[in-house]
## 1
Amino acid sequence: MTTTAGPRTVGVAHTRVEGRDKVTGAARYASEQPFDHLAHGWLVLSAIARGRVRAVGDAAVRAMPGVLAVFHSGNAPRLMTDYTSILGPPDPTLALFQHDRVPHQGWPVALVVAETPEQAREAAEALVVEYDEEPHDVAFHAGRPDTYIPEDANAVASKGDLEAELAASAVVVDASYTTPEEHHSAMEPHAVTARWDGGRLEVIDTNQGAMWVAGELAQLFSLDPSSVRVRSEHIGGAFGSKGVRPHQVAAVMAATELQRPVRLALTRRQTFAITGYRSPTAQRVRLGADPDGRLRALEHEALSLTSTLRPFVETSAVLGRVLYDARAHHTAHRLVDLDMPTPTWMRAPGEAPGSFALESALDELADRLGMDPIELRARNEPTVGPLSGLPFSSRDLLGCFREGARRFGWAERDPRPRSRREGRWLLGTGTAAATYPSGAAPSTASVTAEADGTFTVRITAADVGTGARTALTLIAAEALDVEPDRVTVRIGDSDFGPAWVAGGSMGTRSWSLAVSSAARELRGRLALADGDIPPEGITARTDTAGLLAELAKKERHSFGAQFAEVAVDVTTGEIRVRRMLGIFAAGRIVNPLTARSQLVGGMIWGLSMALHEEAVRDPASGGQLGADFANYHVAAHADVPAIEADFIDDPVPDDPVGVKGIGEIGIVGAAAAISNAVRHATGVRHRDLPLRPDRVLRAEEEAAAQHG
Amino acid sequence: MREFVYQRATDISGAVALLDGDPQARFLGGGTNLVDLMKAGVERPDRLVDVRELPLGRIETTQDGGLRIGATVTNSELAAHPEVRRRYPALAQAVLAGASGQLRNMATVGGNLLQRTRCAYFTDTSLPCNKRSPGSGCPAVTGEHHNHAILGASEHCVAVHPSDMGVALAAFDAVVSYETTEGGGEVALADFYLPVGDTPHLETALPPGALITAVTLPPAQVASHSRYRKVRERASYAFAIGSAAAALDVADGMVREVRLAFGAVASRPWRAREAERVLTGRPPEGAAFAEAADAELAAARVLDQNAYKLPLMRNLVVALLTELAEETDR
């Protein structure tokens, strides 16, 4: 065995640096920070799906015990909502109480502030809001006449003559798929405290980007950006839902008007209502292939919904632009405006639902061709970006399939459906490809050499529970060539300067570039200082905008192969996943321990998406029915079998840190692998998620009727 | 959330006296359903009378050889009791199929029987519901009803009773004992839950203010060869979409006695007496099991989204009885 000299940094498994604080309760989450003289806010959400607020009966509520204030569209201070943040235009719900229109169920219509949360809640529930109700439409389905192509850079991409290639194809798969409305369901509900302190607005929050939130709050309240400080020390999951939401606006509004600290902590039902969700999708895939499996045509059209306020596109059709070569490509998105809340990014936005459709369709094509599904993918492996023509920074999808097939025992698979039975269970296996972009955005960071020989890193990064703080500790230690225990990483504070958010699988990559670059610069300055460090330390600070601008334009993505084995009882409709394996080519793995957890977490979510998750809209009220974890099911422990995630080497030669994103890719393809396994087990292809027992039973009845 | 008074009762007469004449007061057992409903605003009691300290926490063999289960026995204690496991195995299995370990440690037998439906219209106070708000309507009939009733429902309410435990108790002819300020009484579980009709808000035959004190299981040889199976879309911690308790006694190649009860198909645990009648005296085989299930389900009325419960329950009955019959052969 060879031992590597030098510090144990990147590539060595490290437990979380704040792990002990978290398991002992010493780590304080946003709603746990004590404040003197704290008041509590409670949002009142619209009970109707469309119309106007006619009157708010706040007089009676103001007289209730402990009530300090009631805000609504009749009395709220004006906000400035005409701006664009680093992530685009503001979410429409941030225009809190700025007009009397109700565009969807759950729209915030009032805020009650009281001395205790119980008083605030009781008063909020007692508040009578009168509406002028209008008919609403929340019915999402394919074939609506009122869909349109959004003005989005990613909306449509094409090459070649699709119809001609389909006509020339020996085999054509033409199939439609649906995925339901899904919710982020972070363990820690959203919570915020706002207060004015010495002329500065202080916000204690749980979010994916403290600078992002600070920037939008400064815009909304017309404040000097330097007078707003947002901190977000520990975060119990986010998944795209913890950006700027109405509760933060409400807290700042109340703290400003009342001149005392105000806290809002959302209930689970409120998180379902006002923190975003993934749109349902209706997708159609057409694949045309030669008898040898080579794709002539790849078409993927995806319909999703948005609110009547702002277009949000669930970009389900983008992944085919990266995954497969074909003579003709057509991938396009459509939207329909409904009286629904505005959807938002949710883990692997686009790729998660899109991969269910595309990777199911590939499996259908393999069935039709009588070809192994992995071989089919190998036949269509591109050498450059199928649409862009750009080289890949690195790509080893087939290496993932090879390693996965070896470890999963794919070679022993009998491809015939219904070929394995164990008691009441039919067994089957399936596979699917995974990919997700690996981007980076400009960020700033500082690294300080302290007089005591330690180092302090400051960056407005967010550790949403993934282990980002630990990863950045390792990155800094590597760049400084010191042991990680000499490095303290401070994150989640907007005073540390601009940095990218924890989102789009871009956080660790973007921050690593900034931290390593600052550390390198510091080492240069330390060499000049000749070991003489003043009491305030020596600080180097960098901005990666220039570095990123110099990076060659390439297709930069992570890749993976998903494998699943399922058991299906077709007499009851029950599906249980027996094992899953994911092999990923995702650049340099900074911390194998937390990286594995993140990928396994994504795969579990894929399982949950395949079998459980589905938000139900009540057609009559237009609201979500059963917005709680008793009704919105995620996988329970008993549903989660042996799951393995592992990596293959994936060097990125031209990249300064070689780090790719791993936040999203774990979920991509997982639901398709499970659905493909169900098809193998039962002979029935399911095209609608989740794979509910009633759907399995109905399919079985229909199959029996056909054969009988 | 409304402010409420919390009182702890130490004896039964004191407990019922505390509730007497106060329709807004509620007994508090494990609180695993009531407290959730209070948070949701469905229940707004002005007073909670905690009954967990009452001397009702024992499981005893009765003089005739049955079991008397105190009302405050927890679900965990019930499922772990050796006599329950030996003589009424389907009951122990049913209890263990419900909720989670933490909830079963808190939930009581009396509370389990009185838990409310999980129909999402019932638990959302912003929506109409005849059970919660009589006369407001039942949106489930035309709305979401994947997991709603196919037996014994009406156009006024199609909610299902969520209990697993109750299904096994129904199969075993349980009798509920209660106490009021006027004295005690008993009601068979078969009569405990009222028909839905046009009064879905009236759920049980208990007099106002009554406290359940015990559930008694009469002795039954057939119960010792019994099984409970619950079908749900995830492997744990979910309410049934269909469940069945079955007990089978075969003598001389014929069904001497059979017990069948269904869960998640009706507003109450559904004793399948028609199926039992069809099967008794027949050879224990698949065709007879299916015929029995069909006989019971002939009365079913399905809606758009819950028709799958017919094949589900039929398959479940056949599978359970087949397993029990095969074990008899060995």
## 2
Amino acid sequence: MLKTFPRGGVHPAENKFSAGNKIIRMTLPKIVTIPLAQHLGVPAEALVNHGDMVKTGQTIGASKGFVSSNIHSSVTGKVIKVDKFLDSSGYKKAAVSIEVTEDEWLPEIDRSSDLKKEIIIDGEEIIKKTLESGIVGMGGATFPSHVKMSVPRGKKAELVILNGVECEPFLTSDHRLMLEKGEEILVGLRLIMKALGVTKGMVGIENNKKDAIDHFTQLSKQYPGIEVFALKVKYPQGGEKQLIKALTGREVPSGGLPIDVGAVVHNVGTAFAVYEAVQKNKPLIERVVTVSGKMVSSPSNLLTRIGTPVNLLIETSGGIPEGTGKIINGGPMMGKALDSVDVPVMKGTSGILLIPDKESRRKKIDPCIRCSKCITVCPMGLEPYLLMTLTEKEKFDRLEDEKVMDCIECGSCSYTCPANRPLLDYIRLGKFNVGQIIRNRK
Amino acid sequence: MNKLITVSPSPHMHSGQSTSKLMTHVLIALIPAFAASVWLFGWSSIIVVSVAVSSCLIFEFLIQKFLLKKETSISDGSAAVTGALLAFSLPASTPIGMVMIGSLVAIGIGKMSFGGLGNNPFNPALVGRVFLFISFPVQMTSWPIPKGFETSLVDAITAPTPLEIVKEGMRISENMSSVVSNLPSNMEVFCGKMGGSLGEIAACTILAGFLYLLITRVISWHIPVSILTTVAVFTGIMWLIDPTANANPGFHLLSGGLLLGSIFMATDYVTSPMTHKGMIIFGVGIGLITVIIRRFGAYPEGIQFAILIMNAFVPLINSYLKPKRFGEMINE
């Protein structure tokens, strides 16, 4: 029996078209736009001005506060503008625009592909290096990684879980990274384990990536304490809480964090970034991005410098196909629709999807027939139909009692609803209002 | 790029499931029972079913178009399902005019007066049926003898339902064993060789529909199984206590409208609870009330009233029985 989380979940068509395509290095763009807010928390503060020359790997944004992150230049060139630019969030935010002249990396960065296994520095230094290198959660949530490596007082970390689930349809960037940089990822996991002072590591991979499971099972033999698990294919298994439940049977309490059950979850891409930062001195300046879609002529996995405009990635994969109706940053279940292809790739950009026009528009909303399918699929045990009604009626105290804040916004309810009801849209609105009420109470 | 693209919040995928697809599945699941009724009652069954379905569709269309003045929704299939279920619960000899009145009550009062699909507290088909049952008690309890296409609607010869045989037998305080000799065997009941409503008498075809609904995941097992288990346990206990005064549980399960009601009517999405726990309580309630009416009440059959009574409890069940929230155990 394969492990999985017990409650709810859906199984959308996997459509992993680019799973067999090796990671390709993107050509350098002419201009990059590097946003200063690529993470959850406080945006970084610009360290460069118009006209400055920067080198690849140079820090151009300084982290402000504990929950924040450094920003580095991904190219060598001249700063042409420090201003507000449109990014994939759909808002204009502070960013540094750099005209690319050449590709001269800072001398301390080790650009060789040699594997460095020995861990010579101690836990505290690993955390410091992670912070300096601007590493954030690369699964899409972009939570600063050094925060997750520092255990709050009174809590104790027991194990580190590496998330190789990649349950979103279409996306294959983590899958390819696991196949091509498996050993580096495991060293990264060891680094995270050392930083947290734990000896137990688990890797969870869904069973539609058998090659990655075999590869990791083989590799993990040389790393005592690390175990690899095959998981049943079910969305949203990549959700932190669902993954912890699937692997350990522990349930993160409502309103709590994984650390409350002794677990810390990191994405495989983050583990790879930690490896590069600690062992190779390389800050987070590039990542693998899947470009895919049903009509895309060459779906691909591109190793892209942060700040590269999205349209360059699409061109590399064969351009925008005729009849494209929607462009998504991320996966089709939780990703964000872009309103422009000029926005830059950021640290949390796991994929760019091109959706045919037919599939990009919502169907007519019918009345709720109380089929209770939304309740059956909700992985958090909520009642989406009720949360939507309560939001419509602005009954926010009831909404809070019905645990609206537990919603992980996986979208399984809207995906399943036979009446095409926009359940998640309303739940988000409800969460926003209840969140405000809770903040005002403090 | 100057092409227009759609921007909307996630999720950007949909399962493709729709209300009309679900209703179509229910109609498909009713086909075996319909085929059996045609085989048993011939033309009269075809006439009753087609009149009920078409008048439900027409009344829904007229009410939405002229009274409510809004877009019509007859294409979602729910009115057709109501019509089919209403017809299935009527005797094959029901006059056309009565079928139409039943359809008008089902759609007009049972469904539209509450605001249409999704808002009705009571199962519309049962509202129509109970209205006819109370208004036209004679016609609603004369059951033609199933003879296929030779079924006579003119002849006064009617076959009592097995439940009526039992009720009548108990009333004139005969011993159960002599009553049983008048009953069709369980096997005959299973295949529909008895008096009864046109769609409810062939148990095997209804169970085939149940299987189809389970495979296509239109309904879950909770409501039908909890109703049938409750009926079996309750009647089983009474039968063990006094077999001379009570019919055996197998007979109770297969006779009357129990199967049709518990599989197709109690599982109506709109009028049944949302959570699995709630569904089980709902089912147990229906089972108990059905047996109480059958054994102690004035009517031979009780499933129709049982479902309507429990329909009224659904909002209460929904507000008290919540699904188990993720992470709630640890909080305590």
